[in-house]
Amino acid sequence: MHSFFLEADIAQEVVTVSEQFQKNLTGFVDFLVRNRGNILWNLFLILLIILGAKLLLHLISKVTTQIIQKPKNQTNTPVAKRTRTLLTLFRSVSRYAIYFMGFLFVLSILGMGKPLSNLLVTAGIGSLAIGFGAQNLVRDVVSGMFMIFENQFAVGDYIKIDDVEGTVEATAMRVTYLRSFKGDQIIIPNGSITRVINYNKGSAIASVTISTAYESDTRKVIELIERAVGQYAREHSELIEEEPFVQGITNLGESSVDIGVICKVKPMKQWEVERGIRLAVKEAFDQNGVGFPYPHLVTVPYEKPADFVSREDIFVNKKQAKQELASWQQVDADDLDD
Fold first, then answer.
1. pLDDT tens, position by position, 117-142
2. For 320-333, how does the pLDDT look when each residue is reduced to its tens digit (9 = 90+)?
3. What are 248-265's pLDDT values in tens digits?
């Protein structure tokens, strides 16, 4: 009897849930039908906000690109690099700001408060998120802002960050974009940057080590190197700030006498000058018959000593001894038979 009433209560509850669902669904459909004009208008406003945000972003990108591509901003002067850096940063900040404001306006259209109140609520939620796990995001943004304002590097500079290096393509609020020699794009969070080497700041030093043979007259070789690098410096004065200096012998190797050459050059020109100095020295050595050291292989003919006993000789002697022992045993056996 008790189970019968329990099953009846369950059936009644199922009917009630079904009726409630149908009632709410009917009310929702009636609401959409009655307010279809307002709903269509809100959707139109949301679409208009999205299109306006995209149009504004496109306009900002177009204007900043035109300014960056001006001839005066394409040079390697500090002012031009600073301009490119600030414009790329402004483009990144504008993207975040436009998306954020558009999101607040969409919330207000959907009836979730006014933009100003949404901004205050978002600020409160953002503060809570910072306390629970957004420290890395804040660290990236703050570090990026300090790096830009301190002018640690600019767009177009060749820098090394920790164990990676490349040319700065763009600087954003949170990350820095590098392009390596191989063409790879490297994206580094600003908060993880602890040490920066900027090769575009100040002068650079070209350093070359020239290996010469021990058989050569080192003093004459040094004089020849001085003439060669001096002529190269006169022919490429636009790359060099100070005359090359031949240091003399820097190392006595196993098969070479190393002579060092250093030269103060324009920023980012050290590798080009190093290659040019090596070519100038090589041509000077070829013209004057000076050779470079290289591995030598000396072959000494081998003669077997008279009293030397090889493994083959030992094997032959053992074989002969075994044969003699077998013949002796055979003779003894014959004698016993007799």
1. 555 555 555 555 555 455 666 777 77
2. 555 555 554 554 44
3. 899 888 888 999 999 998
Q: CA 66, 95, 133: angle at the middle one, nearest 5?
A: 145
Nearest 10 degrees: Cα torsion 99, 104, 106, 109? -160
Q: Give Cα 216 distance to the centre of its chain.
A: 44
Q: Do residues 246 and 228 lie in contact, with contact meaning Cβ atoms separated by under 8 Å?
A: no
Q: Can you tell me the distance from the alpha carbon of 92 to that of 298, in angstroms, rounded to the nearest whole number? A: 67
In 3D space, the residue among 215, 242, 212 whose CA is nearest the CA of residue 229 turns out to be 242
Cα 325 to Cα 329: distance, rounded to the nearest angstrom: 6
Residue 214: CB partners within 8 Å, gap ≥ 6?
255, 256, 257, 293
Nearest to 190 by CA among 151, 157, 133, 142: 142
In the 3-class helix/strand/coil scheme, how is 143-195 assigned residue by residue? HHHHHHHCCCCCCCCEEEECCEEEEEEEECCCEEEEECCCCCEEEEEHHHCCC
Percent of the chain with pLDDT over 70: 75
Question: Count of CB atoms within 10 A of residue 119's CB?
Answer: 14
Q: Can you state the percent helix, strand and coil of the chain, rounding each to 5?
A: 60, 15, 25
72 token code pair: 């005066």
How far apart are the C-alpha atoms of 1 and 156, rounded to whole Å?
A: 88
pLDDT in tens, 282-294: 999 988 888 888 7
DSSP-derived pairing of the beta strands 185-189 and 175-179? antiparallel
Distance CA 10, CA 15 (A): 9
